[in-house]
Write a structure and sequence with these properties.
single chain; alpha/beta; Rossmann fold; 4 helices; 5 strands; 36% helix; 26% strand; binds flavin mononucleotide
Amino acid sequence: MSVAVRYYSRSGNTKKLADAIAEVAGVEAKSTDAGLDGAVDTLFLGASVYAYGIDDHVKSFIAKLDSDQVGKIVVFSTSALAERAFPEVERAIKDSGISVDERNFYCRGSFLMLHKGRPNAEDLENAKTFAKEILA
Ligand SMILES: Cc1cc2nc3c(=O)[nH]c(=O)nc-3n(C[C@H](O)[C@H](O)[C@H](O)COP(=O)(O)O)c2cc1C
């Protein structure tokens, strides 16, 4: 099974999850700005919310994807307050016609004075366990 990990991260929180998932998958996590080279069975896609929603970088990455190129997308995300990130990423993917795994990984991400240190070591272990379950 071919696997890729792509993420968009302004302050590094989503990147931490991406690196943990990529370690389990045995691939290198790359920014969505790197695009996707070749077809993959499973694409782990990480994003977070910034006031008005997910970042335009993520939206344009998704818009360039083709359902022939990606078997399914597995979403991982962080946010400071509400669990808004997953539904927003999921909606953008569904608009693209690519299938989205119902399972997703979410945890809090630090923002200003909130959730210092998140994702923490426990979050990263949970992300690895999630990736193992997806890839099993
Ligand atoms: C400009 C900005 C706006 C944000 N707006 C929200 C928001 O509306 N709701 C929320 O839950 N978190 C919000 N956050 C918090 C981020 O979702 C959280 O810090 C996330 O972990 C950032 O991920 P990153 O480090 O990968 O960029 C915002 C963060 C920034 C920088």
